[in-house]
Amino acid sequence: MTASGADLPRLSRTAHGRPAAPVRIIHLGLGNFFRAHAAWYTEHAPDAAEWGIAAFTGRSPAAAESLAEQDGLYTLLVRGPQAPQPEVVSSLSAVHPGADLDALRDYFSRPEVAVVTLTVTEAGYRRDADGGLDLRDEAVRADVAALKADPRQGVVTTTPGRLVAGLLARRAAGAGAIAIVPNDNVPHNGAMVSHVVADLVAEVDQTLQLWIDEHVSFVTTMVDRITPRTTDTDCADVRSLAGVDDPEVVPTEPFTEWVLAGDFPGGRPAWDAVGARFVDEVAPFEQRKLWMLNGSHSLMAYGASILGHETVADAIADPQVRQWVQEWWDAAGRHLPLPEAEVTAYREALLERYSNANIRHLLAQIAADGSQKIPIRATPVISAELEQGPASPGALRLVSAWVAHLRGAGAPVTDTQSDLLRGLVDGSVDNGVDRVLEWLGLGDKGLAATIVQQVESLEAQGKEVQ
């Protein structure tokens, strides 16, 4: 019975963790990364007892329903090179399905709520190709119509819609200033969220923008902690190590990083006491992570999955894949505004993290939503290469692997723009590469021949391992 957890208790605040803190933070996106990252920093802050989080799911209510059964508690399972270490995280004082708009508006209306954090993935912000809000998106249009018809109770479903609905409620309540803190891998994410919110406000109620300008800060962040999807093995390990049946286990690595720039007019937890860094400019750290970590992750997700690998640890153990990654790092590292010694140390740390076989970071998971990732992970590196001469083959292989992926090799295509992408690569490799390069803003740069050659080589290797 123990193996299944049927005779083990669920987590509860009467037996585990600490009492629920008063809600002062709203979070949108109740996924594993948030629970391993911002919720962990809040848990370990010395003033954690003053800062509870009310967290909302995205589309599915499942996580909120499951967490509610154990008072918002969950086990963080830190998997390093040695034995895994479980710890109970108590910082979620309330959990709600994303559709619970009454609760969302209520929290936004409370003066003591000072921070809104978000982890909704790049696709969750509903941006168009120019970086603004995609006003052609059906869900966005529905949110605009709902808020125009009923600003106080209109039913919204998108992240920008939920933010604007909350800010309308906060203004109506006179609840004062608040900080919005996105924690997704998007360059200049604070300005990005400000942009999509402003675009939606312009469609709904232009007077709200004046209030936002005076009362809302948008904080820019860089976040890092490899956090794979939960497996049955993770839950079984927690049953064995901690003696509880927790279906909401979150596995993660020991390493974590959080860099923030911006104002918190209503205050914030003492995250800096547990390692978060508050800086004037996030861009160098953001660029380092996006290019070196996220870029190499995408390269492995598309390229290594074609070779039959399933996880990052499997991929980096393959000498060919490791060489691809090193060549990508050579190209990206040349253009980072950081000392060479720091870049070298970061590369070494990444290799150690990637080689941690106790973290099963699935390549198929990383491969999702490439349409949002490739333009900010690959295009800037290639553009920087072109400014100093021809782009190296190592810089181009990420785009080549993505094209091969879109053409059906390796990990399955999971993308909000899958129909558009399939249209881009339809037909011959040559035509597909030309269309993808044009879509990335890299057409007529003399890149096509090398990329076509790399795509054909990848597809041939993929057929050999099938």
What does this structure look like?
- The chain has 466 residues and is of the alpha/beta class.
- The mean pLDDT is 96.
- Helices cover 48% and strands 11% of the residues.
- Helix 10 packs across helix 17 and helix 17 packs across helix 20.
- The strands form 3 sheets. It has a 6-stranded parallel beta sheet with strand order 5-2-1-6-7-8, sandwiched between helices. A 3-stranded mixed beta sheet has the order 4-3-10, with helices on both faces. Strands 9-11-12 form a 3-stranded mixed beta sheet.
- The chain has 2 domains: 280 residues, 3-Layer(aba) Sandwich (Rossmann fold); 182 residues, N-(1-d-carboxylethyl)-l-norvaline Dehydrogenase, domain 2 (Orthogonal Bundle), CATH 1.10.1040.10.
- The protein is built from 20 helices and 12 strands.
Proportion of residues in extended strands: 5-15%
Q: Specify the biggest β-sheet.
A: 6 strands, parallel
| Distance between the first and last residues' Cα | 40 Å
CATH class of the largest domain: Alpha Beta
Number of domains: 2
Indicate the low-confidence ranges by residue numbers.
Answer: none
User: How much helix is in the residues?
Assistant: 40-55%
Structural class of the secondary elements?
A: alpha/beta
**What's the CATH topology name of the largest domain?**
Rossmann fold
Shape: globular
* The CATH architecture of the largest domain: 3-Layer(aba) Sandwich
Radius of gyration: 22 Å
User: In the CATH hierarchy, what is the superfamily of the largest domain?
Assistant: NAD(P)-binding Rossmann-like Domain
Work out the helix count: 20
Tell me, rounded to a whole number, the average pLDDT: 96
In order across it, which strands form the biggest sheet?
A: 5-2-1-6-7-8
Number of strands: 12
